[in-house]
Each structure stands twice: as structure tokens, then as C-alpha cells.
User: Fold these one by one.
Assistant:
Number 1:
Amino acid sequence: MDSISIAGRTFNSRLLVGTGKYKDFQETRAAIDASGAQIVTVAIRRTNIGQDPNQPSLLDALPSKQFTYLPNTAGCYTAEDAIRTLRLARELLDGHDLVKLEVLGDPQSLYPNVVETLRAAEVLVKDGFKVMVYTSDDPIIAKQLEDIGCVAVMPLASLIGSGMGILNPWNLQIIIDRLKVPVIVDAGVGTASDAAIAMELGCDAVLMNTAIAQAHNPVLMASAMKKAVEAGREAFLAGRVPKKIYQASPSSPTSGLIGS
């Protein structure tokens, strides 16, 4: 599979995965190995990566030498909280600057607060962070985030953890067509076909957590998602046949028929 470049770094996998909601770190590691993912997100407010030396650390299960960590601001509802959280992450991870920004609007929908997101992105970019940003599927906001200097824009497919798949492919297509930085679908993926559709649209990658971690068999679902992302990417690169409404096209030649 062709590689993807984010913030000057090259990755062979176009599937990014979260580390929450698994039953234990052993299952987390098994699922991520099956996914083939190289970038893993971690919620700084919810996961121990050294804040508590008396508790098991995710770093033991997923060594930072083997995986690229993407600290995120899950649970933050203001720009100030998000900025503070990512500065803490940078200290815990020895100056790590590749981060995922998300500022939520309310605890029921977990829909992004784009006003606060824009505020936080400006400060973080100026502070030297390489910001990958979770946002709505609004093409105008997506372009503003790119213009601020975010290294990847991550519009939702549907609400976080909903498993509803891509509800508005048309807006996603506009974002893909207009932005130069990687566009990564984030949130709402439920099953392998959702991931394949995102990649067929031309998204550069897909990020997911719940779809894998909450599946009946997380390791098997991780393997399915890996294949779906790869298949969707290959289909996009191959170029699908044009859709022809109410018009058929024979699969076999119409000339030189036997008996004609």
C-alpha cells in the first residue's frame, strides 16, 4: 500500500487507531497489531502514560519506539483546557509535538465546538505543535484550520462512537477536493464498509477506536478494518467506472457474436 506523509513523517498504514475502551492493555496491543496501525491516539486525561507511576502504563504495552503516539484532548470543552492538556502531553512524552486537537461542544453529542477549536489551533500552531484536528464536516471550517497551519484535518463521519458511518459524503468530498493537507475521517465509523467508503471517496486515512474496541471480537475487527482501508485506497487509485443512470453497458463484446 502506498505511504502517507503527515507533518514530514512517512507512514505505511493509512489506518489510525485509538487505545481506549479495550478490556485491558493486552487486548489493546493484540488489536493494534492486527490493524497494522503505526499511529495510535491516547486520551491524556483518561490513560496513564506516566502520570501515575503506581499504575500500569500504556507505554509498556505500546512502546513509543514501535508506535507513533498521537496525544488527544478528549474530554476538553474549552480551548484553554485543550491547550493545557497538550502542553502536559509534550512534557510527559519528552517534547513530542504531533498531537490531535479536539474541543467538544457538549457531553451528549460530543460534536466539535468549532469556535473553540479554531482558537486552540491558532495557539498550538504558534506554540510549535504539529496539530491534527478533529472538526465538523463543514468545508469552510476545514479550510480555515488548514490556513491556520494544521498538518491534517479530521472531519467526522458521524457522531463519536455512534457507528453510524458516513452520513454526509458530499461535504467530505468538498473538503477532500479543497484541502492540500491530509484529510482523515475521524469518528462514527462502525464497520469495514464505512472505512472502505471513506477511502474510496479519496480520504487520506481513517481514524477509529470504538468500532474496533467495542466489537464482539476486537482483534478480528481490527484485521477487517486494515483490509477495508487498503481495499478502499486501491479502489480510489484504480478509478471506478462512471455511474450511468438508467443506462446499461454490456460486459462482453457486442461484435463478432457466434451465429451472427
Number 2:
Amino acid sequence: MTSLDKPPLVTSTVKWRFPAVHPEGRKYVAISAGITLLLTIVSNVLFWPLVGLTIWVAAFFRDPVRTTPQGENLIVAPADGLVTMIQRVAIPRELVGELGEAPLVRVSIFMSVFDVHINRTPIAGTIRQVVYISGKFLNADLDKASDENERQHFVVEARDGRKIGFTQIAGLVARRIVGFVKPGDMVAAGQRVGLIRFGSRVDVYLPDDCAPQVALGQRSIAGETVLGRIGGTAAVGIAQ
């Protein structure tokens, strides 16, 4: 085949754009903007600080487009943030029925108030379980927050029967966990499944044949960072 016989190269252009504000946050942006306008009538001194607050609220609920790596052996990060824990732990009792009783490796991702707070499913499959539990609002960076804070558990089952559990955990500032899916829903890898309003952490429970691909202190990007690889080699040691 000569160069003249080769099919034309297909190219495309991707342009950067401002992230949209998720519908869940639009009312908060509107409230913040309304308060800004109202209080500005009382004092012009408050204008710029309140404008800054409105911009921050809009940024908090930003919903950027993400490109999820393809591969049935990949588990992607469900949250933006800092990887703060990689440790083998006991399974939450709410997940034992789906994941079994044996301890699994838990990867914890802490979200600051400056991170994107839209959470995504680590794998494609069917939502088998969604369990909401009311609780405290301790600092989400604490280990005991997994058992004591307000939280919402998810279990997703892949086509091959593999199940991945992950948990949204409210934190010191967070006061509301919002879910977008219910048991029986089909989801694609990296699909939006919920958000934590003004907070704080997501835990992912990796199966024993899945090797962590992130390190402590690494920053993850929801729907894009490869958190684990089935049958792979662990990137770091695991605390026992």
C-alpha cells in the first residue's frame, strides 16, 4: 500500500472550557448572588468579599468533563483529592453482605473545600447496594470517620461478577450527602454517582487481586486516575 492508498488520518480538536455548575449547586449560587446584591445595598464595603464568596460557591459545585481510561481491569478514582490512607482494614458491616467478611485494602481520598466534589463510580456495572447512614461530622481525615461520620455506601458489580465497594463520608464542614443512583441502575466507569455538599472523603475497597496504583500523598482526579489494576503489581506497600 502506497501513501496514496492509505486512509486519511482522522483528527479532532479538544478545546478547554469553563466547567459547568452542577444543577445541585445552582440554587446555592443563586442564593449567594442574591445575598450579595441585597447586602451591597446596605454597604458597598461588602460587595467584593461577597462576590468572592459567590464565585467560590460556583467553583465548589463545578462539574468538569472527565475522560475515563478504558480497560476492564482498571479501577478509577471516585473522587478528586489527596490519597491519605492505603491500608488493609475490616469491611464496614453494611458491606459485608456484598463484599464478604475478609479485610480488604482501603484507599481513602480526602477532598478539601477547593476540590471538585462530584463523585464517580470506579468501574462499570450494576449498582447492587446503596446504604445511607446518618452520623457525626468529625474531621474526615480521621480514621474513625469511616465508622462514625454521616456516610453513604455503594457496591457496583461488574459483568464478570467482581464487586467494588466505595463510601462517601461527610466531614467537618459537610452537612449533606447527595446520591444520583439507586440499586439496579447500570453505570459506566467514571459515571457521576453523587456528591458531598461541602465535604470531604471517599473510601474505596479493593479486591484482593487488585493492586493499588497510587501512593500516599498523590492527588487523584475522579474518573481519570487509575486507582487500582486487576492482576497488576502494587505501586506501593500496604499498611497492615
Number 3:
Amino acid sequence: MKMVGLTGGIGSGKSTVAKLFEQLGIPVYNSDIRAKLLMHTDEQLIEGLKKIFGEGIYDENKQLKNKEIASIVFNNATKLQQLNNLVHPLVKIDTKKWEVENASAPYLIKESAILFETGIYKEMTKNILVVAPIDLRIERVMLRDHCTREDLLARINKQMTDEQKIPLADYVIQNDGIQSLILQVTTIHQNILSP
């Protein structure tokens, strides 16, 4: 089974690109969404998170306080590593189950914000990187997340740069609002389908 990695920095538009692949009939595993689901449903993971971040990390409705965790791990590399050590193995198991469920597809896509950072890209058949000009990325995320430019730049500066990621990618999609996303996605889709 061909498994294709899809990544891009915050605000690059990788979720939009993922939706285009889904419209072509390609199943997409969204690592962030699946990880959040596991953090709300997997009892062992919930207990592990409470040990690291305290009982108060879940509210009275047993909902994880995502923003609270994000603010902690963005400023504490040790806590981030502890979080990753808990979540990544479970996401890996979840991915395998999902692959079996979608085995009839011509290929599968795994969307992950940290595909290159974690080394997961090495396990993929091919890797797609979505890039966009930094000002456009900032504008998109500030509108979407209602955050300050300073907070956003702090998050961006903790990620690998596009210049570091491009040599690791098999395909680079330019999401600059000028070049057609549909054309780029369709071209890559046909390329992946060809033997």
C-alpha cells in the first residue's frame, strides 16, 4: 500500500490540500485530529496526560483543555517531549488500524504537521509539502485562530523552515493564491497513481 505524507507549516493550507485529495477519492489520515480524539477517548492516555499536566488539564465535562496544553508545551521542551512520547505510539497504532480499514484505496495520505520533524516521512512512499508566503500564512492563521502576530511567530519559529523541508519533499505545492491548487493536486495525484 502506498502511503503518502502530507505536511506544511502552520497556515500553509495543508488541510485545504488534504480536502482536494479527499475529493479525488483518496482517504486522508489527519494526525492532529486523530491524536486529539485519542486524548479524549483512550483511558490510558488520559491518565498519562493527567500525570504530566495535572488533574486540572481536563475540565468538569472531561474535555481536554487543548489551549492550556498548547501554551505549556510551546514554552517547555521537556513537557512537549513527554506529550509526544505518550501520544505518538498510540497514533502509530491508530494509523495501522486506519490503513487496514482503507486498504482498497489506490493510495493513502497521512497528514501531519511534524512529518519531517519526527522522521515519519522516511516511512512514506512519497512526501508532499505545502508552502505559502509567510505574510499570507500569518494573515490566514490570525483570522482563523484569533491570535496575535507575536504568538504566531513564536509558533512558526519553533517549526522547521520551508527551506529545510523542501529537500526532503518529493512534491512541493505552492499555495500562494496565484497558482492553481487543483491543478497541482491533480498532477501529483496522477503521478502517484502511475506505476
